[in-house]
Amino acid sequence: MTDFRQDKAIYRQMSDRLCDDILSGRYNAGDRIPSVRELSEMLEVNTNTVVRAYDQLTRQGIVFTRRGMGYFVSENARDIIMENKRKEFMEEKLPDLFRQMKLLGIPIETVEKLWENLHDD
Fold first, then answer.
1. What is the pTM of this model?
2. Distance (Å, rounded) from C-alpha 84 to C-alpha 60?
3. pLDDT of residue 121 exceeding 90
4. Contacts of 98 (CB under 8 A, 6+ apart)
5. Were both Cys, which of 53, 58, 60, 75 would link to 14 (CB 3.0–4.6 Å)?
6. Which residues share a beta bridge with 65?
7. Which residues form the HTH gntR-type domain (predicted)?
8. Helix H segments across the chain?
9. Which residues lie below 8 Å from residue 7, measured CB to CB, with a gap of 6+?
10. Which of the 8 DSSP states describes residue 65?
11. CA atoms within 13 A on the CB side of 21
12. Do the beta carbons of residue 110 and residue 116 sit within 8 Å?
């Protein structure tokens, strides 16, 4: 059984995980992803939840359906996911990170040094 967080709808967490699988190369453009029933059984969730996740991914252009064959990864899925994740990071996560840095008295120079050290390896 898969553990889901309480702070985000399950179907959105499932969408995020599928996007991560696409970014990691587990699924590539043109690949078939698990059917609604397969994913429902793997994650032990209601099929309606999987349908909501797949509908969201379809509306975003990340997956598409082939009648009678299932869901497949779109040709430009990686680009769409990267753009969505960058936007989410810049608009949601980075402002919170900056707020935490300010509260904790961490100067941006400290982060810059860590960033540089991370990329020197």
1. 0.79
2. 9
3. no
4. none
5. 53
6. 71
7. 8-76
8. 10-24, 36-43, 47-59, 77-88, 94-104, 108-120
9. none
10. E
11. 17
12. no
